[in-house]
Amino acid sequence: MKKGKGAIFTFIYRLLSAGVFSSAIILYVSDFYGATGVTWKHFAVLVLTEGLFFGVRELPKRQRIYAVLIAVPFLALVSGVMGKEKLGTWILSESSYLGTLILAVSACVLQLLFEKYVLIKVSFSVILCGMLCYSLFAKRYVPKIGVLFLLLYVVMTMTELVWHRSQNGEKRNSHAYIVWLVPFFILYFGFLVLMPAPQTPYSWQWLKDIYLRMEERITIYAENLVNRNDEDMDGSISGFSESAALFSNTVADDKNIMVIETVSGKKQPLYLAGKIYDVFDGRKWSGTKEGDARERLFDTMETVCALEAYAKEDTDHLIYYNDIRAKAGYRHFHTDYLLAPSKTWKIEGQARYRQSGAELVFDKKAGYGTEYTFQYCRMNMGRETTRDFLQSDGTKQADLWESTVKTYAKEEITLAELGAYRENMRKRYLPETKLDPETKEWLAFVTKDAEDEIDGLFCIEEALAAMEYNVDPGGLPKEVTDEQRFLHYFLLEKQEGVCTYYATAFVLLARAEGFPARYVQGFSVPLRNEKETEVYSGMAHAWPEVYFEGKGWIPFEPTPGYGVRRYPAEPERKEQKEGADKTKESADREYSFGNKEFLNDEEEDERKERDEKLRELGRAARFIGICGALILTVGVLIFITDRLSEKHREKRRSIGDRYQLAVMRNLRILSMLGYERECFETYHELAERVKRDEDEKEIATGFIETYESCLYGTLEAGKRELEECFRQRERLMQTLHKRKGKKYVFYWLKFSVM
pTM for the full model? Predict the structure, then answer.
């Protein structure tokens, strides 16, 4: 073995560093290669393997050969004594020791690499800290002793880095320095071992909150930066599009656009209205954007008054509406429209919006992170009760108007203003609608058993709901250019389509019967028992609403398969108990008829499980990205701070010290070019060796001669010598750039940070 204290310090340093590093790793990843329980035997294998590795490496080359020659017959002897089968069985059964052996050898090789490149060692320390953070957030159990070994290695690495940075660029051996600090490391380690650890892990909730807030802010920024000018659902999406055209086919993906949380009230299927139209040209809808900004408030109060009056006449005292408060949060969604139920009377949130008729429009396009709370009234009546309610006398609701205004409105609203609102609804949503003879005949046949005009609307609804739901009904023929031709084609020829077809047909037929009606686009959300309900783009939907004076806008559901969402089960009165089973069977049959993607619980669960896995992968990717960004940011800040402090220190140095440091840096560039100063080689001999190489004449070496004159002669380093040294450094860097090509960036970084 090499003689001298330096060799002993080097051996101890390498054994200590590799031992701590491998101990931290084995305690962290032992379960991945079979070491289910790490014992003292595993640490014995680590120490013996690393001791032999570094011990053999300290031997002269000839003695290394002898050691290998002795080890080979020794292993052969062991194999012969144990036998192939027994040896193979031992290796397989004791795979954890074999993995420990491989880990020890790998740690030794990495230690030699770390000695040459300290920054790589620092990078590994950062990775170990990242592993610890991952375990924290992933709730992965790591033994206490493993965490202590990991932190000890990080402390040793940082100590060594500080030593190197304190040498002002000079390359000195830090092995002895680290070894002398071993007693303090042992004291630190023992103190932490003796400290009691809680039985339950610390939750680090404050750190998790910071991470979640950072993740959300980064996602919000990225989403809104990329899609700030786009209007989602602006294509052929069933039920929600800017042009409101009747497309030949629809696209329904699983994009998560919103999250709905019911704050108070009963969880029920939710219809979120976005865009409301009143004009149809035979192929698409458009809106006039006219009307009182208080349309939704008028609608809510008018309906509540009518329901209160109707409830007083009911001897069973049933509740016909619910006041519900819910919270909405936009996810991967960008739109100008604030989505809320039609009878929303209160909205709270930071997002600024305005009312354009019955539509709620943001002042600025909303995107990921937009949140608001809305309070609305939802009618809680089945189909038969709704029919009875609409046919009841609504004149008594005027007596309740004053008390309702006090509850829902911030200002006084008179009955005269209510009358003006009603007149505007009739004028705007009841244009003249003509039907051809065949369509009139179809309408007469459908409504022949209706008791009155209101009952006729329900007959129309039932007739449309009995048709076929088809997501790809094909394009409209060219001859369909107005309302009459559309109704004739859809009702008498096609008789299938998506929600946009059924909502359009119902609105036109209701107008033909003398009722103001409108076309509404939004989302039909089947709220479940979870705390939050995710809204997907495939839940986009279109439905009709009819205005009844004294009762407000009443929604209908002519689309096949959606009636169970619009109309809850009828309340069980005494006279209805006999038909309860029949009603349930009918609702179940209707529920299974239509869009299977949202009505099949098994498929819904599979989709939720798939989305959860995708979200986990997304969270892991974002976590890695955030950690990488933080590491990069910290690294850049450290680099900038180091450069600034270096410039500050350089200004405080004398000319002589600055000149000596500049020469050392030029010599480092020479070593990158392949001319590293050898042991016992003088500076003059180094310069001569460079000059003897005919291909290296362009390499500047004049600074070496000047430096020798300062060291051994009478020349004193001054400003002129320092500037000349800088000029020659520029020449050396140009040569390095020319020789290394694309690898020059790596050498430049190495020169800058060392």
Answer: 0.54
